[in-house]
Amino acid sequence: MLGTKQIAVIAIAAVIVAAVAVVLASGSSGTKINGPTAITVGKTPVSIELDNAQYIISLHQAVPGSGVAYLYISRSPVLINPALNVTVELNNYTKVDEGVSYANLEIELNKVSNSVVSLTLAPLPAYLNELPDYSRISPVGTTAVKNITTSVLVTSTSVSSTTTIVNQTAAAEQRILGYVKLNPWYVLMLNYSNAYSQVGSCSSEQYNESFATLNHFLPSGPASYQNVTYQTPTALSLNITSIGGGDYDAIWSASSADPSSRGPAVILTLNLTTGQITNTTTTGVFKDLDLSDLESGFTNAQSIGNSCGILLA
C-alpha cells in the first residue's frame, strides 16, 4: 500500500506529465535558445528549444524574500527524461543536465516574485564538458517537496548560517546538499538563523515592552530578558556528513552561551541514491518540536515586528 508521501510524489509527477502534454500538443517548438535568452516563467509551463530538443519549464515555488525559486524542467519525451527540481538563486547561475550526460543549459535568476520569475537561459556546448550543479538539482520523485507556508519568509539575505561538508566525494556531498535545499526544513532553518542573528539588536527595554504588550504584565524570573537571551541561540550552522551505507546526516547545530541550547537541533537522514529523507530528529533547543510547530513559532516571532520577536515566540 502506498503511503501518503509516495502518493504525493506520484501526484506531483502526474501533474507535470499532464502539463507537459498540453504544451506539446499545442505544436509550438518554443523559444529557441541559441545564446543568452531572457524569458519569463510562471506556473503555466513554457516551451524552449535547445540543441534541436524541446524542453518544458515551469515555476514550482518562489521565495522572493530569500531570492530563491524552484523550477520544474523536463526534456521531451517526458516519460524517458523525468522532470527535474532545479533551485535557482538571484543573480547566480545554475548548470543543468536534463536528458544528457553533461551540463547543457545555464540558468540565471534575474528577478523573482511569488508567481513569476525572470530568467536568462544560455546553452552550454558539449565540448565544454561542464559539470551540473548537483547541489541544486534532483529528479522529481526522489524527494517529497512540501509547500513552504507563506509565513515562512527569509527577511534578510544576511543570514548567519554556515554549511560545512565533510566525509565523502564532492559530487556526493553536493547532491545531498541539493536534496536538503529542496526540503522545507532548509528555508525554515535559514529563517531561524537570521532571526537569531538579530537578537543582539533587541534591548532589554524593547523586550520588556513587547513582552508586556503580549502578556499584560512585565517579565520576571525565567522570562526575564537576561535569562531568555542567555538561553537563545545566536546562529544555526548546517553540517553534512556520511553515516555509512549511502546515508548522510544533515545536522543543524545551534551556537549558544547556554550549554542546554547548544549543539544539534535538527537532524535529517537522507539516502544518496534515492534522495529520500528516512528520518527526522529534533533535539536540543528544538526538542519535541516538529516542522509545523517551528513554522508557527517563526510566524509568531515575525508578528512581534522587531528583533525581539524570536525571544517571545
Structure report:
This protein is of the alpha+beta class and 313 residues long. The chain has two domains: 4-139, Sandwich (Tick-borne Encephalitis virus Glycoprotein, domain 1); 163-312, no CATH class. The protein is built from seven helices and 15 strands. The chain has helices at residues 4-25, 170-181, 184-197, 204-215, 225-231, 291-304, 309-312; strands spanning 31-32, 37-41, 46-50, 53-63, 68-75, 84-89, 93-96, 105-112, 117-123, 137-139, 163-165, 235-244, 247-255, 263-271, 277-282. A hairpin with an 8-residue loop joins strand 7 (93-96) and strand 8. The protein is elongated, with a radius of gyration of 22 Å.
What is the topology?
Elements: H1 4-25, E1 31-32, E2 37-41, E3 46-50, E4 53-63, E5 68-75, E6 84-89, E7 93-96, E8 105-112, E9 117-123, E10 137-139, E11 163-165, H2 170-181, H3 184-197, H4 204-215, H5 225-231, E12 235-244, E13 247-255, E14 263-271, E15 277-282, H6 291-304, H7 309-312
